[in-house]
Amino acid sequence: MKILVLGCNGQLGRCLKDQLVNTNYEVIFTSREQINITNFEETNSEILDISPDVIINAAAYTEVDMAEKDQNNANLINHLAVKNIADFCKKHGPWLIHISTDYVFDGNSNSPYKEHDQTNPHSAYGVTKLNGELAIQSSGCKYIIIRTAWVFSEYGNNFLKTMLRLGSKVDKLRVVDDQIGCPTYAQDLARSIVEIAPYLKMRSNNGIYHFCGNQPCTWHDFANAIFDHAVTKNLKIPNVINAIDTLSYPTPAKRPTFSVLNCSKIQNDFGIHPSNWREGIEHSLDKLLFQKEI
Question: Which of 43, 133, 266, 282 is deepest in the core (most CB within 10 A)?
Answer without folding.
Answer: 266
